[in-house]
Amino acid sequence: MPSSLHKLDPITLLRELESRSRHHAMGLPMQVEIQNTWSGVGFRIGDIRLVVEMDSVSEILSIPGFTRIPGAHPWVKGLANVRGTLIPIIDLRILLNAGMVKQEKRTRMLVIKEDGAVAGFMVDEVYGMRHFIATDRQDDLPNAEDFIQPYILGSYIQNDMPWGLFDMNKISSSTAFHQVAARTV
């Protein structure tokens, strides 16, 4: 401390220190308006980026080994044992009549649990959690292909990229989904 401060009475010394502290202090951070966000799990089917509600997905897995099921539709790839739980593996692209998921390094399975039932949906790629400003939601997905349109609840645009809000409940409750057998014996 400079010698001039030693000669000051304690109150004056405290005021001087406060003045110096305020002079060198950084300002408060700028006030930012907080916006409500919506979060989901982002994934891709072909060239279409989609997002599904977080509550719909119980886990994301690499494609496990599975056993094919004779007589099942082509979109039923097989049955996998994941930590003691049997999970039917569904190729979402075939189910939607949009081709076949090419099993590559990025291919993943979204595990969906609903009403006690569980199913794994193969998708081309999973992007993880995506956050969107809730008020940016649109009613449709611009330029959506016909095969995906019935399952779209809306969309969000992020960095000029549309993300379709995919209705996984509509898929899992559809009649086609519950008719696993391709033919009766």
Automatic annotation (TrEMBL):
Q: Which SUPFAM superfamilies match?
A: CheW-like (SSF50341)
Pfam families recorded: CheW
User: GO cellular component terms?
Assistant: cytosol
| Record protein name field | CheW-like domain-containing protein
Which parts of the sequence belong to the CheW-like domain? 37-177
Q: Which SMART domains does the entry mention? A: CheW
Q: Which GO terms describe its biological process?
A: chemotaxis; signal transduction
Q: Which InterPro entries match?
A: CheW, CheW-like_dom_sf, CheW-lke_dom
